[in-house]
Amino acid sequence: MKDSGSPGGIPAAAGGSGLTAQAVDAIEDLSGVHPGYRRAHAKGICCRAVFRPNGLAAPFTTAAHLQEQEVEAVVRFSGSSTDPALADLLSPAKGMAVQFSLPDGSITNLVGVTLPVFFARTPESFVDIVRSVHRARAGNLRPLELVKEISAHFTESKASFLALKKLQPPASYAESHYYCIHTYFFVDAEGNKRPVKFEWTPVTGVRALSLEDASQQPDHYLEDELVLRLQDESPVFQLAVIFGEEDDPTDDPTHAWPDERRRIEIGNLHLTEIVDEPDGLLMDPAVVPAGIALSEDPILHFRHSAYGESFRRRREEH
Ligand code: HEM
Predict the structure, then answer these.
(1) CA within 20 to 30 Å of 180's CA: 131, 173, 196, 240, which one?
(2) Cα separation, 129 vs 145, whole angstroms
(3) What distance in Å separates the CA atoms of residue 308 and residue 119, rounded to the nearest whole number?
(4) Which three-class secondary structure state does DSSP give residue 124?
């Protein structure tokens, strides 16, 4: 378990050196520094929410928020871009990050996106790919170099890029399906561990816009839509847990498990109202409570320090 290091979830180990700083620098290079904003998923909107677990996860995990007692949560929906001013239509992948408040006063986070897999297998690949994208955009990568870069990471990135290509503009943050991608382990009262992944699905179903309809929307239509929607209703997301089987990789975020894996719905998240972003909000996906363990996925572990570094930089700029 990674300890949050503070009530706000600031990783104690956050530091500005080595690969962590290189990764955050590489992201900054993509669209410049936007002081005070997250280095990725810069644009977002927060809601207050209540999570009501249905007890079906209890035989598999002792995690306090997955028993039968409801808990409060903060949800942040976001566009994936590093630029907080970019129009919603221009950043195709969307994020949904949920911070649960546990009965003992601690927190845990589940961070999802609208893609089922990630494009990099390791932190080193991540840095390499982000730097190549930057050089290609800036016109500093010769065609042969670009081909070399693409083929070096082709196998790991392929599934993610294909999924990205298929993404349609969402009609609403509240009508999108979010995948938390990494493997975690449920740990039961006897200490048995089972590999699991998490997904959020809207109970009213997923709805997309045609490109033509989306292009007629205002730049920030997803935030506007959510604000209006929450005046009239309380959108609900189901939390599903998917159980991995023996040969399913648990350390590879670029690899999806087969569709037929056992899946159970373990609770509902009710969005209640739009709120200003709470001070110190940090959605570190490596902060887990007793009853959930991190897999050995290197990207999951790396996100702990990368998010801490981004948090440190944006806080200092405030
Ligand atoms: C090497 C891998 C990754 C790096 C370096 C990275 C980097 C970052 C950074 C720097 C932030 C801003 C953190 C902050 O200031 O609070 C961020 C936010 C975010 N990332 Fe990643 N990320 C990685 C992988 C992923 C993956 C696999 C997902 C998909 C589940 C993801 C989804 C998100 C979302 C949804 C947010 C917004 C969280 C919020 O609303 O606070 N990231 N990422």
Answers:
(1) 131
(2) 12
(3) 21
(4) helix
Which one-letter amino acid corresponds to residue 148?
K
Q: Is 39 in the pocket of ligand 1 (CB under 6 A)?
A: yes
Measured in Å, residue 269 CA sits from the centre of ligand 1 at: 21
pLDDT tens column, 58-97: 999 999 999 999 999 999 999 999 999 999 999 999 999 9
In the prediction, which pLDDT does 116 show?
98
Ligand 1 centroid, distance to 191 Cα (angstroms): 30
- Is beta strand 178-179 parallel, antiparallel or unpaired with respect to 263-275? unpaired
Backbone angles phi, psi at 242, to 5 degrees: -115, 130
DSSP 64: G
Spans of the chain, pLDDT less than 70: 1-17
- For position 3, what pLDDT does the model report? 35
Integer Cα distance of 64 and 52 in angstroms: 12
Nearest alpha-carbon partner for 43 in 52, 51, 34: 34
Atom of ligand 1 nearest to the CA of 97: 40
**Token representation of residue 210:** 């045609």
What does the domain layout of the chain look like in residue ranges? 43-118+162-295
CA 285 from chain centre, in angstroms, equals 8
Gap from CA of 80 to ligand 1 centroid (Å): 8
Amino acid at position 120, single letter: A
Best residue among 30, 41, 91 to mutate for probing ligand 1's pocket (most ligand atoms within 8 Å of CB) is 41
CATH class of 43-118+162-295: mainly beta
